[in-house]
Amino acid sequence: MATKVIMPKLGLTMVEGKVLKWLKKEGDTVKKGEPLFEVESDKSSFTVEAPADGILRVILAGEGETVPCTQTVAVIAEVDEDISSLLGEEQTRPAEGEKESPLNVSHNVSASSPVSHSDKKVKISPRAKKLAKEHNIDYTQITGTGPKGRIIEKDVKAFIERQAKNKITPLAAKIAQEKDIDLTTVKGSGVSGRIFSTDLPVVGTGTSIESRVSATNQKDITVVPYTGMRKVIGDRLSQSKLTAPHVYFTVSVDMTRAKEVRTSIYKMSEEKISYTDIIVYATARALLKYPALNASLNNDEIIYHNYVNIGIAVAIENGLIVPVIRDAHRKSLIEISHEAKKLVQKARDHKLMPDEYKGSTFTVSNLGMTGIEDFTAIINPPEVAILAVSAIKKTPVVNEETDEIEIKPMMNITLSADHRVIDGMVAAEFLKKLKTYLEEPYCLL
Hints:
This protein has helices spanning 84-91, 126-134, 153-166, 170-179, 209-215, 228-243, 256-269, 275-289, 333-348, 424-439; strands at residues 3-6, 16-22, 29-30, 35-40, 45-49, 54-59, 66-68, 72-77, 246-254, 295-298, 301-304, 310-312, 314-316, 319-321, 324-325, 362-366, 385-398, 405-418.
């Protein structure tokens, strides 16, 4: 029985996925549970397994193509099984929010390449044979439904329709119809010239993006699409910066005691605690004292959370992702350290599930390891604050009691707050409390 392979929906927030790589090609035998293709969501990637045994008869979404969740991307069936009905369903499938409207694109799709007819004897009606020759179709490939397997005219017509649908993906067909693109001028990059959305010309130019760049004779530039993770990050941060009036507060923190804590824990248990672990631990406790910063702004509602989910900004290839330590206020420093290491590694391996980077109530962005001495961060909506952590540097500091200059490991932290929700005094008091916790971490432990 033919089986649809769909774009999976992993997590409540996932709406589409990008096909990164097919691990099998059309015509390959696949086993249920075998890795079939790789997918990238807005901020992670994962491998999709084959849902059934059979032959990978047709691939409907090419590598690099973005597909809505639950849409069919391929069909697995037996070698001689008729899958035309399944392909027809996908060709006429409406986009989300649209009314049912069959895509009539077959008149724009070129006929199959000329073929040589086999010398083997086949039963075919004169009208069917004439139609096959007009379209350069090898009718020996067609299964007849007439008496004693005779090929009749409707069999040839059905074969032509299947060819037309198989030569273009549903997404490419939809775009071609909306933009009135003549598909006879498009060269497909898929198997047997199959057309994907990335093969379509840029409307209004008659040429693809690659062709336009080539025409400029500018060989020293590289053009990449502003899509996927890069666009998601850009859209979210632009929205945050434009809609949330950011106000910034900076303090210097003496990290002498924090360094002692790291050394003591390592000596006692050989646990390698990072400064980020200590900052997350202290921040979670400070947020309990100042719930105004542990909030979200959702349209006309301010939501105060009675739990602390801290996101840790992690730089990965081509972007940034924020894995979340849930209920950080309930976890020990060691537990936070273990969980942070696990999440950061999964983030760098592009293995995070959507639910592992959604739902933070406050974010910490630490660039200290890069040597950055001071910076401000853009709030991660719908949160109302974010903490920017800079490098720890040996700095001459005046001892207030002795008026002597001492060299201490100092670190700047800057709070970005949404002034619509957080008043300046509240933000300043929170930062003062956090400074105290970081400078005297033993009182927390």
